[in-house]
Amino acid sequence: MRQAWRCSGLRWASDGPVLVWGGGRRSPLAWGKQVAFGVVDGGVRTCVGARGHDCPVRAAVSGRSTGARCEECARLDRAHSVAADTIADDPRPYHVYLAWFGPGMVKVGITRVERGSVRLLEQGAVTFSWLGEGPLMAARRAEELLRAALKVPDRIPYAGKRAVRAALPGPGERVAEIEELHARVGRLDAWPESLRRAPFEPVDHTDVFGLAGIPAVAGVVSELAAGGVVSGELCAAAGPDLHLATGRGVVVLDTRLMTGWELTGVGGEAGLTVPVREMREMGERSVQDGLF
Q1: Closest-CA residue to 19 (of 264, 208, 255, 268)
Q2: What residues have CB less than 8 Å from 219, skipping those under 6 apart?
Q3: Model-level pTM?
Q4: Sign of CA dihedral 222, 224, 228, 230
């Protein structure tokens, strides 16, 4: 009987994406690598808990949930997050940033300075630049200023990000949109005094994500299911998404769907037997999960 593992999700390191498993096991990913696993037959997806603690009742959760938490654990996790604005006295410094995901898709966000650019990798930002650095509440005010004065959103739907990755414009166009917006931010009078402005210094993740020359996406895994199999050759990765070349074209797997399941290894010849939604069926826009 094959050993089963619980996936803790995708993590981004300086040298690329890594799948992390219960017990600390790590699986570095590389372009051309075969990604193949099966969901334990008869298994049930269970809540991953909150704030580093297991769910006390091991509640069953929906296969379509990217959070993989029951209602109570989701509430607890949210209540202690920066996004919930419940930790205004956080003494750590924060960055405010502009992130570009494709033409017309720019967002503003904040992240702890100590995390560097990891949050941008986690979101799948193709290009980004810092706007400023300072206390949490000043960063929050700057974020709200951009939303109110310049209509810059703080969320970009993942459906939109996935749809454009195979047809991104050249480096000049990728930078131009956030450069122009960065300059407009610099002319705003209401910028918080305690937030130190940052110069425009764009960082591009196209090579880090392996996006150059990738094929268009044919479909997106909508959920895993007991007894199902996922198998494909990794051709790109951005944010939580793995772009897998399969017999039915390139299929995107959101690795957040893997958490909460018992998974096991399968042979490389295995196919793709989980539900997949074709891109032409996906007219609606999904909503990105919390910022932090």
Answers
A1: 255
A2: 248, 249, 251, 252, 276, 277, 278, 279
A3: 0.90
A4: positive
Residues 97/110, Cβ–Cβ less than 8 Å: yes
Mean pLDDT of the chain: 90
DSSP 257: G
Query: In this predicted model, which residue has the larger pLDDT, 254 or 2?
Result: 254
Q: Which DSSP helix (H) or strand (E) runs through 37?
A: strand 34-39
Structure tokens at 213: 């020359």
DSSP, collapsed to helix, strand or coil, labels residue 148 as helix
CA-atom Rg of the chain in angstroms: 20
- The C-alpha atoms of residue 270 and residue 244 are separated, in whole angstroms, by 13
Q: What is the pLDDT of residues 182-212, one digit of tens each?
A: 999 999 999 999 999 999 999 999 999 999 9
107 in Cβ contact with 154 (< 8 Å)? yes
- Please answer whether residues 98 and 175 qualify as being in contact, where contact means their C-beta atoms are separated by less than 8 angstroms: no
What are the residue ranges of helices labelled H in 112-226? Answer: 118-123, 136-150, 158-164, 171-186, 206-209
> What single-letter amino acid sits at 106?
V
CA distance 93 to 135: 5
| Lowest mean per-residue pLDDT among 121-130, 178-187, 243-252, 267-276 | 267-276
**Whether the Cβ atoms of residue 70 and residue 262 lie closer than 8 Å to each other:** no
Which tens digits make up the pLDDT trace of 34-54? 999 999 999 999 999 998 899
Q: Using DSSP bridges, classify how beta strands 217-221 and 229-238 pair: parallel, antiparallel or unpaired.
A: unpaired
Q: What's the burial of 141, exposed, middle or buried (CB within 10 Å: 0-12/13-18/19+)? A: middle
Q: What is the SS3 assignment for 214?
A: coil
Q: What is the β-pairing status of strands 241-246 and 127-134?
A: unpaired
Query: DSSP per residue over 161-188, as a string?
Result: HHHHGGG---HHHHHHHHHHHHHHHHT-
Spatial distance between the Cα atoms of 236 and 103, rounded to a whole number of angstroms? 20
Query: What's residue 263's pLDDT?
Result: 95
What is the per-residue pLDDT for 162?
94
